[in-house]
């Protein structure tokens, strides 16, 4: 006997075992399946009923991403960009990163303190800026020591 025939016979035997043997068992099986399908329909109805909003509900205005940025004269670009930015997915439109954050220095939205976009990026107290860079960059100390060693030799 070939493998195909053997597999087909095994499948038929399994089907025959699953089928009810007499009319009484078949009727019982049909009633049971009807009950189960009715219970499933009830559960589906309850789920859809609770998911839908009640009739006559007046929708409130949905929050838009640009609403988290105040409508101040310096924030038009950030608000406009967020208004048209994609809301789903993990992509960056036109290679521009979507940032909803406020700069501590200029108090504008769309960048952080220390970003090149900030108008106060180079302005301000140069000593404090130099100190900040030195403490933020771990390689700064190593590079400074290497320069000192080169001068000594």
TrEMBL record:
Region (Disordered): 1-33, 46-75
Biased composition annotated in UniProt, kind: Basic and acidic residues: 1-15
Any GO BP: RNA splicing
PANTHER family documented for this protein: RETINITIS PIGMENTOSA 9 PROTEIN
Full protein name: Retinitis pigmentosa 9 protein
Classification of source organism: Eukaryota, Metazoa, Chordata, Craniata, Vertebrata
Gene behind this protein: rp9
């Amino acid at each position: 006997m070939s493998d195909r025939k053997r597999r087909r016979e095994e499948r038929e035997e399994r089907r025959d075992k699953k089928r009810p043997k007499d009319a009484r068992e078949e009727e019982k099986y049909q009633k049971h399946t009807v009950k189960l399908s009715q219970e499933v329909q009830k559960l589906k109805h309850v789920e859809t009923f609770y998911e839908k909003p009640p009739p006559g509900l007046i929708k409130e205005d949905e929050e838009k991403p640009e609403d988290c940025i105040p409508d101040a004269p310096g924030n038009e670009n950030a608000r406009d960009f967020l208004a048209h930015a994609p809301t789903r997915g993990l992509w960056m439109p036109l290679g521009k990163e979507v940032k909803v954050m406020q700069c501590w220095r200029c108090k504008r939205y769309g960048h952080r303190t220390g970003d090149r976009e900030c108008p106060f990026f180079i302005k301000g107290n140069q000593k404090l800026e130099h100190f900040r860079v030195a403490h933020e960059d771990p390689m700064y100390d190593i590079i400074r020591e290497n320069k000192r060693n080169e001068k000594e030799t």
